[in-house]
Amino acid sequence: METVPTILVADDHPLLRAAVLHALRDGLGQIRVIEAATASALQPALESHPEIELVLLDLAMPGARGLSSLVWLRGERPELPVVVISSNDHPRTVRRVQQFGAAGFISKSAPAESIGQAVATVLDGGSWFPPLTAERSEEDAQLAARLAQLTPQQFRVLMGIADGLLNKQIAHQLGLAENTVKVHVTAILKKLECHSRTQAAVLVKALEREDEA
């Protein structure tokens, strides 16, 4: 019996999620969809549904910092393909999404049938990007390589640092001992080659850089 693919649709707009669901069913037939409306909902969704085979990800969900959700997903489940669906389809954004590990990019202004085609292609092991006209960025390549060294938990701690939180506040937010957070911060600074929390926060800021269409 053929298995039904399970797809996580992560977007904070209910109408967009409904439109994506309709497009997926039109393009793929029978599918199972799990929904997430915030960046913080991604982790429980993945833990509750290990059978998820692909994530359709909006970059601008509440709790996300630019490409942070994409980077977190790639660290948490590197084998799980992520297709970004975004209203920002500037060539530079598309190139950045590719460099930070996405398997595809769909503009929210694209025809509905593109969603089904893109997901089918990526589920088959391919990739789906519009023609890439922006140059590859060496700066992004280096940042992606640095962030890839972090464990998912260290990446969560890094997001807390970027929010200006103290170790005690990060510990409370993540349910960790304060000393554990301190150990993570030391490891994060070493892996990112940063001398201070401020430098680490600046690196995260680079994930938020947006290009105007």
From TrEMBL:
<dbReference type="GO" id="GO:0006355">
    <property type="term" value="P:regulation of DNA-templated transcription"/>
</dbReference>
<dbReference type="InterPro" id="IPR000792">
    <property type="entry name" value="Tscrpt_reg_LuxR_C"/>
</dbReference>
<dbReference type="InterPro" id="IPR058245">
    <property type="entry name" value="NreC/VraR/RcsB-like_REC"/>
</dbReference>
<feature type="domain" description="Response regulatory">
    <location>
        <begin position="6"/>
        <end position="123"/>
    </location>
</feature>
<dbReference type="Pfam" id="PF00196">
    <property type="entry name" value="GerE"/>
</dbReference>
<dbReference type="InterPro" id="IPR011006">
    <property type="entry name" value="CheY-like_superfamily"/>
</dbReference>
<dbReference type="InterPro" id="IPR051015">
    <property type="entry name" value="EvgA-like"/>
</dbReference>
<dbReference type="InterPro" id="IPR016032">
    <property type="entry name" value="Sig_transdc_resp-reg_C-effctor"/>
</dbReference>
<dbReference type="GO" id="GO:0000160">
    <property type="term" value="P:phosphorelay signal transduction system"/>
</dbReference>
<feature type="modified residue" description="4-aspartylphosphate">
    <location>
        <position position="58"/>
    </location>
</feature>
<dbReference type="InterPro" id="IPR001789">
    <property type="entry name" value="Sig_transdc_resp-reg_receiver"/>
</dbReference>
<dbReference type="GO" id="GO:0003677">
    <property type="term" value="F:DNA binding"/>
</dbReference>
<dbReference type="Pfam" id="PF00072">
    <property type="entry name" value="Response_reg"/>
</dbReference>
<keyword id="KW-0238">DNA-binding</keyword>
<protein>
    <submittedName>
        <fullName>Response regulator transcription factor</fullName>
    </submittedName>
</protein>
<keyword id="KW-0597">Phosphoprotein</keyword>
<feature type="domain" description="HTH luxR-type">
    <location>
        <begin position="143"/>
        <end position="208"/>
    </location>
</feature>
